[in-house]
Specification:
This protein has 19 helices and eleven strands. Helix content is 42%, strand content 16%. It has two domains: 124 residues, Rossmann fold (3-Layer(aba) Sandwich); 238 residues, no CATH class. The two termini are 29 Å apart. By secondary structure, it is an alpha/beta fold. The chain is globular.
Length: 377
């Protein structure tokens, strides 16, 4: 089994009187992770909230009924909890009434679950996010050399556990994940009647990977208005399909001040959306794939190691740019991404003059481990 880094955060929080809430995309391994917890099977009561009878059970649940169902078991797991109506109040009932029970809750949407539980569970929960497998987790699993050899493969097929653990069958499995699970929560949240518009928007975002995005331009491409584009992008972000990176602007008049880039949490999902799973040797978008890979992997790394940083990209009206800027401990750290380490890179002199003291780094396939793992040279 591939050990998840999230275990390092969760293990010290067990049996502290608070619920453990794990959110993240469907199919990234939340259920498998819970199955590997250090509890005997007879200690655990498990509910899958996607099942109709479980939803009905929790519709009118009481502390007495739950206590009777639990018996002597000390662990309660509610999987895909966003499917239960008024879930926050139900979880508050459990944490307040069954204080000796360790409650675990998973959800596939930050929107439905977080919005419904934050107020009722204030001070009663530890919340964590699980992503698709990471470069670092795979390095820990089978070594740095093997994972670096697989980098061209990962750039195309991504890191969903089902994809990683079934080599040779990636295309069909990616198609299943992107079609069966990608839209499930979004369509149920907003009762979207025209999912074809949503699919067209995702395709447009995938084709504009690593570029600035304009909501007005996307609206024209998709045949919807800009407000609907923004709404759909917000929903896609809350469902852990994409995430936004804002522009950095402090000193220069020609800096782009309200622009944004949009990345996919997983390269495989992005490539599946545009039906392009060709190897990187036959692609023209290798630069965008590498950038998406590094930004998403850096996000996983910072989250799993609890590094709190502000992240941006930087670009001017003259198209001078820096791929990623991190701000922490009162200092700026700039990163340029180059798949080919032999390709010369020149960082913007205007940025260096405007922000003296910035730490500059070039990340290529030669030193990627220094950027997304704790390996340092």
């Amino acid at each position: 089994m591939i050990r998840r880094l999230l275990e390092n955060q969760i293990s010290p929080r067990l049996n502290t009187g608070k619920a453990i809430v794990i959110i993240g995309p469907r199919q990234v391994g939340k259920t498998t992770f819970l199955q590997g917890l250090p509890y005997r099977a007879d200690e655990v009561l498990w509910f899958n909230a996607d099942e109709i009878d479980v939803k009905n059970l929790f519709a009118e649940i009481s502390a007495s009924r739950l206590s009777a169902l639990l018996g002597k078991r000390k662990v309660l797991i509610i999987d895909e909890a966003q499917s239960i109506e008024n879930i926050g109040l139900k979880l508050k009932l459990i944490t307040d009434s069954l204080k000796d029970v360790q409650l675990f809750v998973t959800g596939s949407s930050s929107f439905e679950l977080a919005n419904k539980i934050n107020e009722p569970l204030t001070g009663r929960k530890w919340e964590f996010t699980m992503y698709p497998l990471s470069f670092e987790e795979m390095v820990n699993h089978h070594g740095l050399l093997e994972e670096k050899r697989l980098l061209p493969h990962r750039l195309v097929y991504g890191y969903y556990p089902e994809i990683v653990t079934n080599p040779g069958d990636e295309k069909q499995r990616l198609k299943l994940i992107s079609q069966a699970y990608l839209y499930k929560d979004i369509l149920s949240w907003e009762n979207i009647q025209k999912p074809d518009k949503l699919s067209r928007l995702l395709q447009a975002l995938a084709l504009q990977l690593s570029a600035q995005v304009s909501y007005n331009e996307l609206a024209q491409i998709c045949g919807i208005d800009a407000k609907t584009v923004e709404k759909y992008i917000d929903l896609l972000e809350k469902a852990f399909v994409i995430f936004r990176l804002p522009s950095f602007s402090r000193n220069l008049r020609n800096e782009l001040k309200s622009s944004r880039k949009i990345y996919f949490y997983d390269n495989g999902i992005r490539n599946s959306i545009i039906a392009n799973l060709n190897p990187i040797e036959n692609r023209t978008d290798i630069g965008a794939l590498w950038e998406n890979f590094l930004v998403s992997e850096r996000m996983k790394y910072n989250n799993y190691h609890q590094h709190w940083k502000n992240s941006y990209f930087w670009r001017t009206k003259e198209q001078k740019e820096i791929d990623l800027i991190e701000e922490y401990d009162g200092k700026l750290h700039a990163f340029e991404f180059k798949w080919n380490s032999r390709k010369k890179t020149k960082l913007s002199e205007s940025f260096l003059k405007a922000y003296p003291g910035t730490e500059l780094n070039i990340i290529s396939n030669d030193n990627v481990e220094c950027f997304v793992t704790d390996i340092k040279y």
